[in-house]
Design goal:
There is one protein chain. It is built from 8 helices and 9 strands. The protein is an alpha+beta fold. A 4-stranded mixed beta sheet has the order 1-8-7-3. A 3-stranded antiparallel beta sheet has the order 4-5-6, with no helix packed on it. Strands 2-9 form a two-stranded antiparallel ribbon. Helix 6 crosses helix 8. The longest helix has 14 residues.
Length: about 260
């Protein structure tokens, strides 16, 4: 499975999920990236957990749910099956066998290669390309990959196992998103959101654009434009709020029972 720290999780949603209304105006017809079940399903949840690992890290493995027989990265993956593929360095990399250690990716380091956008680029391509500039060397965001064969059962560790996890809280992603988006909207200093019709709506292109303008600053959508906007610490606080309390009036989300 793939997991992340708070900064890594925020990056994933800003890079791959929240932009869907702009990137995928025609749904699946807009491209394979618009069919990712982990981005478009209506019953998604967010788990907060404590991951305890053997720190002898290896290359990060991309884990995805198969759609139409592929994982979206050119590898065979049965539909509705979770598949993890390890690769050598670089992009897209050559598939190699996964080993028993936990994979780890420095998000800032990996995505900083995207660089600036060019003249004629869509605003969302500029935001995706510059998103890593929001991260810092001390808080670069981390992605992790682990495999069920190497799981350490509580109280009965298996020789050679490399990781275990303790789930602290599971919440509905719709609730978590509303907390995050509402916190960002409250930081809007240009009244951008007030110009969108219909109020809170994460599928409204106007609302989505205001989210990114508030997070990355008004100039990040153009070539050469600087990244500014909300401090990273504020984004992390907004992300954590759903788990800090179960009281919706305080930005919290009620826990969901899990198996």
């Amino acid at each position: 499975m793939n997991t992340a720290d708070a900064v890594g999780d925020i990056f994933f949603d800003l890079h791959n999920v929240f932009l869907m209304p702009l990137q995928c105006p025609d749904g699946a017809a807009s491209g394979h990236h618009c069919t990712n079940p982990e981005a478009i399903s209506h019953d998604l949840v967010v788990n907060k957990l404590i991951l305890t690992v053997d720190s002898r890290f290896s290359n990060y493995a991309k884990c995805n749910i198969g759609v139409n027989g592929t994982d979206g990265h050119g590898n065979v993956c049965p539909t509705n099956t979770y598949c993890c593929v390890c690769s050598s360095g670089g992009w897209p990399g050559k598939p190699v066998p996964c080993n028993k250690t936990i994979g780890r990716e420095n998000v800032k380091e990996y995505f900083s290669r995207d660089g600036d956008c060019t003249a004629g680029s869509a605003d969302y391509d500029c935001w995706r390309g510059k998103l890593a500039n929001k991260l810092t060397n001390s808080t670069p965001g981390w992605w992790y990959s682990s495999y069920k064969e190497d799981y350490c059962p509580p109280g009965a560790p298996v020789p050679g196992c490399t990781w275990t996890a303790l789930v602290e809280k599971v919440v509905n992603k719709t609730c978590a998103d509303k907390t995050f988006w509402s916190t960002v909207e409250a930081q809007d200093k240009t009244n951008c959101f007030s110009g969108c019709s219909g109020g809170f709506n994460t599928t409204d292109p106007c609302y989505v654009r205001c989210l990114y303008k508030t997070i990355l600053g008004p100039d990040a959508a153009t070539p050469g434009g600087q990244v500014s906007g909300m401090p990273l610490e504020g984004l992390v606080s907004a992300w954590d709020a759903a788990f800090a309390t179960s009281d919706p009036s305080k930005g919290g989300c009620p826990p969901i029972a899990y198996k």
